[in-house]
Description:
mainly alpha
Amino acid sequence: MNWFYRIVFFLLGLVFLSLGISLTIKSGFGSGAWDALNVGLSETIGFTPGTWVVLVGILLILLNAFLLKNRPDFGAIITLLLTGVFIDFWLLQIFAELELAGVFASAGVFLGGVLGMGLGIATYIQAKLPLSPIDNLMMAIHKRFGFNLMISKTIGELTALTLAFIFGGPIGIGTLIVTFAVGPLIQFISPHIEGLMNRLTVAVR
């Protein structure tokens, strides 16, 4: 049963994460740095944002292996593929015709997206299954340099922000909010999700 809950948390986390990413992109406030990079690459070179999630993620797998001095975690490609598919599903199918009327609607969608991202990451990392290379970068920085999750996440986001600017991604005030807010949100939510996971796994023993 432990595996059952781990898979459930993994999939639910990726659904929430991809939903949150898609909402921030559609809000028009500016998406997260990595997502702005993927959208910028999509608009500049071609392919869908979800495809760039996979391609950029493969490069990050190699970077994470260098930081941790480990073999590349190619198992994370499964996480990449699922995340890319979910993002394209939300963006190209569910929200393709979404039109937001007014700044308050956009702000509400954006804030919902930020919460979805924080909840999604905090949920799926509890499954101890292969992390998205973006989140594995957070963990790699955390383990390599001893920073907490909040600082590690922020370092990764600032790196992506620079690249997103270079490739002309949709950067706005929302990008800065995501850059500095998601890390603390993960730090806040993670203990609660971990406690829920522990209670569920203990209950079935």
